[in-house]
């Protein structure tokens, strides 16, 4: 996930290096925004090396990419550690005279701050009033703790240890704050493989990209997601594996996918069957590799029908559960994709059906897609072409709207 770590000008800045390390280790894309004063405590090379991302403090750097708002817009969470009295005051007033200030105003993500300062500064009514203002706006406070401060003195003002901040940040990232928060989504992705013998299989061209994007889009809106992945390449599923709100279950055949879907569906509020499953499987899977000598000039395979997973889940749906089917179609001459989708939705009994047109050079394996989403009254509730992330966002929005 995209995590912004704001660092401000206190001695405890050195401890935040550990926090950044822990977040990077979790697989998050971490962007550190120090204040100018923070860089007097820990320098830019340290932040860049540890976060593995460029670090700037000024709104005038990287202007072409509108960095002063881009980081805040992209963020799944902003954490400020340590948060000085000065920065807390600036946040309460909504000041935006540096990159951290503009980022905080541009974000709608959860904000977590770990104050650190001397006890007198912490207890000062000005600081306390600013903290109250931030808390009333939904900013999460961690600490400060009581203990030894920078000098000989001790009392409340010490920054909470990075391991504990990391725990709170991880919990907040899992919780999410979107419209799907508190809901569980089951999403299937990829293409099943039906074994012919220990070496060969019957498969399809689905890469799993669209299903993974649906899982990520649901997670971005706060859902807990179970992603059942059938033969999805590592580079396609990598972002989902790193997302703490997504649990991935790997399967290969249609039978295994059906088992996983039946196991997970009762706990899901929304089921999106984006995987391309095989309608048929090989009747008798050979124990050993079939050789040319055995098969002769022609090899015949007997295929038997697989259970219709989507129709089964739709029949067994519980109250309040939404079942969404996917259809990769090659419409006949004179037939539209929407007509095809309407007929298929009725046959399957799904609440929504997302159809995309496929062909030898369409739909599969590519970055772009065209989705038409049909609801139970045969209305087209979304018709969107774009990247698979964009089409996933539109589908997830249509599901949530329903
Ligand atoms: C050695 C040293 C340690 C400091 N530690 C803190 C601190 O822990 N908390 C704090 O609020 N200010 C601390 N300050 C003061 C801040 O650095 C100062 O208020 C600065 O303007 C904060 O700027 P910033 O909030 O933009 O980072 C410290 C200053 C020095 C010189």
Would you report the number of β strands? 19
Largest sheet: 8 strands, mixed
Structural class: alpha/beta
What oligomeric arrangement do these chains adopt?
single chain
Helicity, as a percent range: 25-40%
Residue fraction in strands: 15-25%
- Indicate how many domains the architecture comprises: 2
CATH architecture of the largest domain: 3-Layer(aba) Sandwich
Indicate the CATH class of the largest domain: Alpha Beta
Distance between the termini: 27 Å
- List segments where confidence is low: pLDDT < 50 over at least 5 consecutive residues: none
How would you describe this structure to a colleague?
This protein folds into two domains: 2-175, Rossmann fold; 184-401, CoaB-like (Rossmann fold). Helix content is 36%, strand content 25%. The protein has 15 helices and 19 strands. Strands 12-11-8-13-16-17-18-19 form an eight-stranded mixed sheet, with helices on both faces. Strand 6 (145-148) and strand 7 form a beta hairpin. Helix 1 (13-25) packs parallel to helix 2. The longest helix is centred in the middle third of the chain and has 14 residues, at 162-175. The two termini are 27 Å apart. Flavin mononucleotide binds at residues 8-11, 35, 37-38, 82, 84-87, 116-117, 121.
